[in-house]
Amino acid sequence: MSTKEKYEQTKLPMVPIRDVVIFPFMMVPFVIGRESSVQALESALRGDKRIFLSTQHDATVDNPRPNEIYQVGTISNIVQSLKLPDGNTKVLVEGIERARILQLNEEDGFWKANLRLSPFRNQSFTGYDTLAARLNQQFEQYVKLSQNLNADQVLAAVKVDDIGRLADTICAHMVLSIEEKQELIEIFNPVERCKRLADILDIEIEKLHVDRSVQNRVKRQMERAQKEYYLNEKIKAIQRELGKKDEKSEIEELRRKIETAGMPKDAYEKAMQEMKRLEMMPPMSAESTVSRNYLDWLLAVPWKKKSREIRDIEAAERILNEDHYGLEKVKERILEFLAVRQLVKRPKGSILCFVGPPGVGKTSLGMSIARATGRKFVRLALGGVRDEAEIRGHRRTYIGALPGQIIQMIKKAGTLNPIFLLDEVDKMSMDFRGDPSAALLEVLDPEQNATFQDHYLDVEFDLSQVMFIATANVLHTIPQPLQDRMEVLRLPGYTEYEKTEIARRFLIPKQMEANGLKAEQLSFTDEGVQSVIRSYTREAGVRNLEREISSICRKVTRAVVKDGPQHAVRVDEQNIVDYIGIPKYRSSRHESQNEVGFVTGLAWTEVGGEILATEATLMEGKGKS
């Protein structure tokens, strides 16, 4: 073969094509729409109907430059062309032979390519029967495994003698990427092309085997489940084989939430471990529901979110005075707490215990502290709690397990540093399910609650930034170890003067608003308020006082409705009987006297106290011992 034959060249119109690689001996239809491509087609039709077709690197580029087109393509014969109504042209071409671009020139509005033909175009390749037999055997196996090809038609098409044509025909029928097909068309030597194709066939056959095994596995599972279950399992099986996951899946969403939740290291590792277990479970199983609920609780707990505190002592003092009258010792302790927080970045959480009779404002004082500090407020009623699991939670092995009330309330608050009110801590009891007061020992210990561990979450949670406030009527029913962990502040009750001021500032305006009265329709004299306190209530708090004031307001409201809005009432000590009846209590006539045989005593309970007059009386006996 001469050098001239080896480097034989030709010049043809060139059309860049998208998303397809045309091989020799391959019939391909496609649509031409670009103006330059239409002109190249018309030029070819005017000549010998031969055109050079090469694939673009990027199918989205409308006008590719020479460096954006593969250098090796196929000289093709235009078999048929048809103009479509939308202005495009549908073309059917048949590949003839491969060629390499030497130079691209733009002439008359389209590309003309100087081409170098294949140096092997006139050579015959004989004696490669073994290679051809191997290719035929591999391709037959590929066709049988593939579900997208007509086996009889495809196998008949590859029954050719020339190994170069055999390789090109097989390439044309295989489902490969554009890059893989371009790699094959750029191999001019038929023997080398056949060897490379044999390697690709091995890989594709292995892929089809994997896909077939996945389908068989899912088919066995489909017999025990419905269509939706089958589709889910197929997706999971394919993902396991490929070693990657769908980024939009629920598992990926959980992973993203876990990574952004701000969990400490041990909680993060626990969550990731549970997520991997969930990933491997069938979605319809009971275990997956348990794991998912556990992960939802881990994500719902505020691991890093805090309330921004109000550290303005003057503003806090104003809020406390607005909400409560008196209680100077308690207010002073709260202001001291705020002052410490201005100087110490991470002080330990305070644990206060308000002890006093009912109605003295223990619970409402906790709400005022939350408002004064700008924190969230949550309240846990402990009256009647006798199960330790209410505090620490249930273990996840139990059906219907939940975290304890401590974690549930922290979730409700949504922050790491709420005001946490443990109401009626003296009303807890115990039975065979455990002692809840013992479970509170860790919660209320400033040295331990930084590593509080709920049985359900099974990871440490930091309670050291929570301000715990407990309330109780009496101390003697609270276990001594629990008392030792709290700072006790006593609220013994209110004097008559304090009750009068509380009624003036808080109770009367509140009840007038609740009963729809205006200031000009009802007023109280100081003597009237004192008469209600002395003659109708006998308590340490102000709860009954508020009830009596409410009763007066209801009667005045009825009179206003009956007589009209101009009706006005002034309540004093003379007409108080008309609204709430005869006095319920009266002062003892002996309180101010000093007589022989008479002594003044004091009776006290957790709901209040009373002065008792005790007299000794001389009685004549019968003389019997």
Please name the defining characteristics of this protein.
alpha/beta, Single alpha-helices involved in coiled-coils or other helix-helix interfaces, 43% helix, 17 strands, five-stranded parallel β-sheet, 625 residues, five-stranded mixed β-barrel, Methane Monooxygenase Hydroxylase, Chain G, domain 1, 22 helices
Description:
The protein is α/β, with parallel strands linked by helices and 625 residues long. It has five domains: 3-117, LON domain-like (Archaeosine Trna-guanine Transglycosylase, Chain: A, domain 4, Roll); 129-215, Methane Monooxygenase Hydroxylase, Chain G, domain 1 (Up-down Bundle), CATH 1.20.58; 245-300, Single alpha-helices involved in coiled-coils or other helix-helix interfaces (Up-down Bundle); 313-490, P-loop containing nucleotide triphosphate hydrolases (Rossmann fold, 3-Layer(aba) Sandwich); 496-580, Helicase, Ruva Protein, domain 3. The protein is 43% helix and 18% strand. The chain has 22 helices and 17 strands. A hairpin with a 6-residue loop joins strand 10 (452-453) and strand 11 (460-461). Helix 10 (265-280) packs antiparallel against helix 11, helix 12 (313-323) packs antiparallel against helix 13 and helix 19 (496-514) crosses helix 20. The radius of gyration is 46 Å and the shape is elongated.
Describe the secondary-structure layout.
Elements: H1 3-6, E1 9-17, E2 27-32, H2 35-46, E3 50-55, E4 72-83, E5 89-107, E6 110-117, H3 129-145, H4 151-157, H5 163-173, H6 178-185, H7 190-222, H8 227-242, H9 250-260, H10 265-280, H11 286-300, H12 313-323, H13 328-343, E7 351-355, H14 362-373, E8 377-381, H15 389-392, H16 405-413, E9 419-423, H17 436-443, E10 452-453, E11 460-461, E12 467-472, H18 480-484, E13 487-490, H19 496-514, E14 522-524, H20 526-536, H21 543-563, E15 569-571, H22 577-580, E16 598-605, E17 608-615
Parallel strand pairs: 1-3, 7-12, 7-13, 8-9, 9-12, 14-15
Antiparallel strand pairs: 1-6, 2-5, 3-4, 4-5, 5-6, 10-11, 16-17
Helix pairs in contact: 3-5, 3-7, 5-7, 7-8, 9-10, 10-11, 12-13, 12-14, 19-20, 19-21
